[in-house]
Amino acid sequence: MTFEQDLKSIIRTIPDHPKPGILFRDITTLLGDARAFRRAVDELVQPFAGQKIDAVAGMEARGFILGGAVAHQLSAGFIPIRKKGKLPHTTVSMSYTLEYGVDEMEMHSDAIKPGEKVLLVDDLIATGGTACGAIKLLRQMGAEVVAACFVIDLPELGGAEQLGALNVPVRSLVAFEGH
Q: DSSP readout, 69-133?
């Protein structure tokens, strides 16, 4: 069995969540399996080992879990990107489009210095709205976004192509057809 097949068998699929017709890909089963979690983090880190990555940015909330582990492996700092109003210090924000409307994300204004190399990490790329917003926010602060890494890609929703249009390489460990 390949790593991708193994990963697909570990990730739980929940039908009709959060609404009818949606197949929710739940990584909590992956996070709960120590060996699989370690392997997934190693696979996310592998292409960047030996590169100078200054920080890993993780999007709320599962991106915090994965991003923290990736940052640790790369000996890099970690930048939390959160929903509006959740961070305690001075922030910068960016609006982004979701399938069902507009939302806003923030990061601390002193989280990054211009020119720093940043890796964006989250559990899943779907339409790409949130990830594109995070990339624009990081770039607004002067970051060089080296790549975006995800455990899961839902290719038919086109998110990876959206990031490609922003000249950000995308790495995902597994693709699930059907959303």
A: HHHHHHT-EEEEEEETT--SS-EEEEEEEETTEEEEEEEETTS--TT-EEEEEEEEESSSHHHHH
